[in-house]
Amino acid sequence: MSTATLDRPHRPAHPAPQAGSNFSGTLGMLRLYLRRDRIALPLWVLLLSVPLSSVYVGSILKVYPSEAARAGFAASIMASPAQRALYGQVYNTSLGAAGIWKAGMFHLLIAVAVILTVIRHTRADEETGRTELIDSTAVGRYASLTAALMLSFGASIATGAIGAAGLLTTDIPAAGSLAFGAALAGSGLVFTAVAAVAAQLSPSARVARGFAFAVLGAAFTLRAIGDAGSGTLSWLSPLGWSLQVRPYAGDRWWVLLLHLATTVVLTAVAYRLLAGRDVGAGLIAERAGPGTAGTVLRSVDGLTWRLDRGSLLLWTVGLCLYGVLMGSVTHGIGDELGDSTMARDIVARMGGTSALEQAFIAVAFTMLGMVAAAFAVSLTLRLHQEEAAQRAETTLAGAVSRTRWLASHLVAALAGSAAAMLVAGVAAGLVYGTAAGDIGGKLAVVVGAAAVQLPAVWLLSAVTLALFGLAPRFTPVAWGVLVGFVALYLIGSLAGFPQWLLDLEPFAHTPRVGGGDFTAVPLLWLLAIDATLIVLGTMAFRRRDVRC
């Protein structure tokens, strides 16, 4: 070998991209993401757009064909704070405004879809090492984030466009149809940017999803309280902005500027945070642990507590704040009805303002139960994450049985979600009882409303555990199961789904607390299903190989 050959500098086979090519490979990454989401993405786009004309507007036209009938329908909604909190207000009695009233929940569902999509293709890929492997080739620093944003932005716009196109085929005003489609797309754009920022904060995809869902939960809470009351708090929430566009009731296009401005600012923040951190790291740096393990870490239960205590604290505080807000607006919520004689007559037929307050508490804690179910899924998915990272194999190599290891994480999920729900119930009950001058009575009702949600909350943890034992590769599908349950609860009956399908949704079976018709039978059935799925998942895990 010549001296010239020895002195020749080494040239890598794939030279790193130059400073000006941070977006190199973006289109290739986008094609990869489209292939990975070839089933899930078209599914949620179509589910959030196609039913608008055929289900919502069509059903209202069939049941309330006249202006007078829709006036009574709108009055009954405005007389029910629980309905307003769940779906928003009806701004007039036109076919368009009444027809898309329940479709207001699509703004929440599209936010859930884009959060899961963006986190999957950004932080989750970094956590598993895929991003580092891809970035070692001729792919720019911003390619992965940009492709994920393009995918989610495009899906959001497509959802709004398809929904608006379907509404244009009906006899309702075209301008309102376009306004609703634009508002739906705007919700997707905002929470795509929220997820992009969340993906920069922590090395863990689970924590990133938790942060994004916390923002979504706060947005929904502010919107719900605002619409149940005077409407002021709705302006502090992106979900509230989407409803304030008021399709078919004035078409306030200027509100969409709030969506666009927020999206641009948060997207710029996401890129700035990405530029200032290493691949695989997060903005919130991980603290170095002590040199020696404490006494708590001498058992597998202590290790699980150490892993999950941060999430437990954050979720409990978040749910508690939700409870305080809901409790603070429950008493006297009937005073928000104004002087409408029709609304007052409807309230009297419904049992008075006390019945309205009980209905509001039931709806509020059903929504809280769905949030707690997301928490339970997140904690149970720790099993999958520990196995995928090959830490489970190390733990099980010691004097720890598979059942004991699995039980430690399951207990954390069940007990953690129960604690968060009950603490939120106590907080709401104390605030509500103080305002009503009956702490003992109101506290018992509210805590009971929180407790009856637990069997349904635990069902999601049991489903996650069953997937982990039977098909570990598909364990994250538990998020899809949760989204499906939420969608069934919100749109199932209006969409005309068969009763057997509606019965699959667990939160529809929770009994009302505070009335005379309470029955524990649905709760016992849910607990039996929970136990069956847990036993099935445990037995399957004990018989299969640990992934390494």
Name some characteristics of this structure.
mainly alpha; 69% helix; 26 helices; 548 residues; single chain; globular
What would you say about this model in short?
By secondary structure, the chain is mostly helical. The chain has 26 helices and no strands. The model is unreliable at 1-20 (pLDDT under 50).
Describe the structure.
The protein is mostly helical and 548 residues long. 69% of the residues lie in helices and 0% in strands. The protein contains 26 helices and no strands. It has helices spanning 3-7, 26-36, 40-47, 51-63, 67-78, 81-87, 95-99, 106-121, 123-128, 130-135, 143-168, 174-198, 205-228, 238-244, 256-275, 300-330, 341-350, 353-380, 382-388, 391-396, 402-436, 439-451, 454-470, 477-491, 499-502, 521-543. Helix 12 runs antiparallel to helix 14. It is globular. It starts with a helix and ends in a 5-residue tail after the last helix.
